[in-house]
Design goal:
mainly alpha; globular
């Protein structure tokens, strides 16, 4: 349990500084630990909420959360996350979908690590909010089905489309994860399949709250442990491929 708490703390610390909740890494770690798949989903979603709530406040306070764009991205994704979470999935189906989702998440992480470049001046294009709203809806559906908040998929899409500045994209991703994770929790409650084991969940929540609060207060210039982020991508990829091969 101490090892789990330390890993969750580290993930929250790293992800929150970039506006993410860490759901993909929480799920990968829990899967490797052999945790029940229903408990995995609820735990990952709760940890996402605990981490990004502080991040949303931080980004909004600093002026890096354009609310109009945030709602455009989330308007379709929130009900889709609820639907995705409500859909009945057998354990085999869940792990197959999660394996695919984690493998894609690892690819997205590698893109951010090795191909994105931070610039002092960034070009922002006028974007079609409807198109990005539909993309957000698709990510929201996957988010609800797997327990991944979706920010790890959304951010590269926004970055490639020059939707906003890097800091604003981090704020938008944080908001997106928060509302989709809450919607996912409600979806599990509605179908009466939500599972909690507070002996497991509470220590992990405490670990991510502490890690998330520290990470949210550190700028990208202060916190750049790329070797840890690379190791996290390898962990996610390993867990994803392992599930696909089962």
């Amino acid at each position: 349990m101490l090892t789990l708490c330390f890993l969750f703390f580290l993930v929250a610390l790293l992800y929150s500084a970039a506006g993410f909740g860490g759901g993909s890494s929480y799920l990968a770690i829990l899967a490797l630990w052999g945790i029940d798949f229903q408990l995995m989903k609820s735990t990952a979603l709760l940890c996402n909420i605990a981490v990004v709530t502080g991040g949303v406040y931080h980004f909004y306070k600093q002026g890096h959360l354009p609310l109009k764009k945030a709602w455009q991205l989330s308007l379709i994704s929130v009900p889709m996350a609820f639907i995705g979470s409500y859909l009945p999935l057998k354990q085999e189906q869940f792990f197959l979908l999660l394996g695919i989702a984690l493998t894609l998440a690892a690819v997205c992480m590698c893109y951010r690590l090795f191909f994105e470049r931070n610039k002092d001046t960034e070009e922002v294009k006028h974007s079609n909010g409807i198109v990005y709203g539909i993309i957000g809806g698709g990510i929201g559906l996957l988010s609800g089905m797997t327990g991944i908040g979706g920010g790890i998929y959304l951010a590269p899409v926004l970055k490639l489309g020059k939707y906003d500045t890097s800091k604003n994209i981090a704020g938008l991703s944080s908001f997106f994860i928060l509302v989709n994770s809450i919607s996912g929790i409600f979806g599990q409650v509605a179908k009466k399949q939500i599972v909690f084991n507070w002996e497991v969940v509470f220590p992990l929540l405490l670990a991510v709250v502490i890690g998330g609060q520290i990470g949210a207060r550190l700028s990208a210039k202060v916190l750049k442990p790329k070797w840890v982020a690379a190791a996290t991508a390898i962990l996610i990829l390993y867990a994803g491929v392992r599930m696909l091969l089962k």
